[in-house]
Amino acid sequence: MSDLRQQALDYHEFPVAGKTAVCLTKPAETSMDLALAYSPGVAEPVREIAANPDDAYRYTAKGNTVAVISNGTAILGLGNLGPLASKPVMEGKALLFKHFANIDATDIEVKHRTAEEFINTVEAIADTFGGINLEDIKAPECFEIEKALIERCNVPVFHDDQHGTAIVTAAGMINALEIQGKEIDKAIFVCMGAGAAAIACMTMLVKCGVQRENVYMLDRKGVIHTRREDINEYKALFANNTDKRTLQEVIKGADAFLGLSGPDVLAAEDVALMADKPVIFACSNPDPEIRPEIAHDVRKDLIMGTGRSDYPNQVNNVLCFPFIFRGALDVRASRINDEMKIAAVNAIAALAREEVPASVLAAYPNVSELSFGPDYVIPKPMDPRLLSNVAKAVAQAAIDSGVAAIETLPDNYML
Ligand SMILES: NC(=O)C1=CN([C@@H]2O[C@H](COP(=O)(O)OP(=O)(O)OC[C@H]3O[C@@H](n4cnc5c(N)ncnc54)[C@H](OP(=O)(O)O)[C@@H]3O)[C@@H](O)[C@H]2O)C=CC1
Ligand SMILES: CC(=O)C(=O)O
Ligand SMILES: [Mg+2]
């Protein structure tokens, strides 16, 4: 562990500090290059954009950029450590945007007092970018912030911890339940956590067929039930009319456990109480709600996923955000709507059922085989087909649902 700690610190420090830099897409070698790039030539696109703001997509990088914006109030599962401490994660998201979807992402960490101040700050800079990816903003403020920004901004605004996580979780859960022989509308769910990711994941799973009365959601005070008076309006959506109050009471006979809370909150004894052939997605980062080796020790019939790269079944929003933004940017979608989100769920779930190319296996030297089954319910982040399949499905859904400014798929989607 300490070895990984030092390796991670060295990775971030050397050979240059941080993980991203700006690169140029036009020559800047000669005086003529400078006359075009800067004064006097730059005045020409300025005039065009002033006359027609849409020309920003033609003459600037706007259309291929995303701002990754955080206030550091829910950094992974590490908590509220402030905006500056969130910078490595936001740079990390920018790295993933670039590597997986060739999107130029800029990390922005915002210090603010009120939610309104944060909203105003983001609204004021939103037109600079092709899209806004909100990241690691805690509940319940994240809901109010995202809603206001969707209303006020002209570009897609997407809170990744809500919707990216929900899309990937739903895709993996649909596949895992099927492998376990469970019907989604009959499965009993325990969701540990009642914040940004948990509320969005369970909302998406309800759209996919889970029955609301079959969901037991817990926060730090235990089961969220209809007689609790200390819950906000978002938790209230999942208040269960039940006499059960503790994790041990609700986990007994549960088919699926979804962890979006914090480390080590699920014990081996709890796992032993679950129904036959259970599914556990312990998605808290970096440390899951239970370690896979502990869970597998008590249940041989288990399908297990985590948010991490170093175990099978990585249930992590990296499988979604680069590709949903690629699709949205390519057809210049004004928003990321439910149709686009459902298209992403289906594309990710379907990809896990396809044969895995050798190039993907080669990226995982410790894995000898990958085929649809308990250890492979969801595609690997390194799978290049995520880009083509998910972005295309999302772009098509944007066109079909009437939110795309460009109504034909780009040529490269037709290959
Ligand atoms: N794998 C993935 O792709 C993703 C994983 N996550 C993980 O999900 C977790 C939550 O993130 P997010 O929703 O953004 O954060 P929020 O701050 O919005 O929500 C955190 C929630 O977890 C609950 N919680 C925290 N600790 C415990 C505990 N010990 N027992 C019970 N409940 C607890 C909180 O309870 P209360 O309401 O009582 O404070 C709150 O409801 C993080 O660990 C994060 O890493 C998030 C996004 C993506
Ligand atoms: C993966 C991620 O976004 C998180 O853990 O917050
Ligand atoms: Mg996050």
From TrEMBL:
Transmembrane spans: none
Domain of life: Bacteria
Enzyme type, top EC level: oxidoreductase
Gene Ontology molecular-function annotations: malate dehydrogenase (decarboxylating) (NADP+) activity; metal ion binding; NAD binding; oxaloacetate decarboxylase activity
PROSITE patterns registered for this protein in UniProt: MALIC_ENZYMES (PS00331)
Keywords of this entry: Metal-binding, Oxidoreductase
Cofactor: Mg(2+); Mn(2+)
Ligand binding (a divalent metal cation): 135-136, 161
Catalytic activity reported: oxaloacetate + H(+) = pyruvate + CO2; (S)-malate + NADP(+) = pyruvate + CO2 + NADPH
Residue ranges of domain Malic enzyme N-terminal in the record: 17-150
Residue numbers binding (S)-malate: 285, 316
Alphabetized Pfam families for the sequence: malic, Malic_M
Similarity comment text for this entry: Belongs to the malic enzymes family.
Protein name per its UniProtKB record: NADP-dependent malic enzyme
Annotated organism of origin: Shewanella sediminis (strain HAW-EB3)
Organism placement in taxonomy: Bacteria, Pseudomonadati, Pseudomonadota, Gammaproteobacteria, Alteromonadales
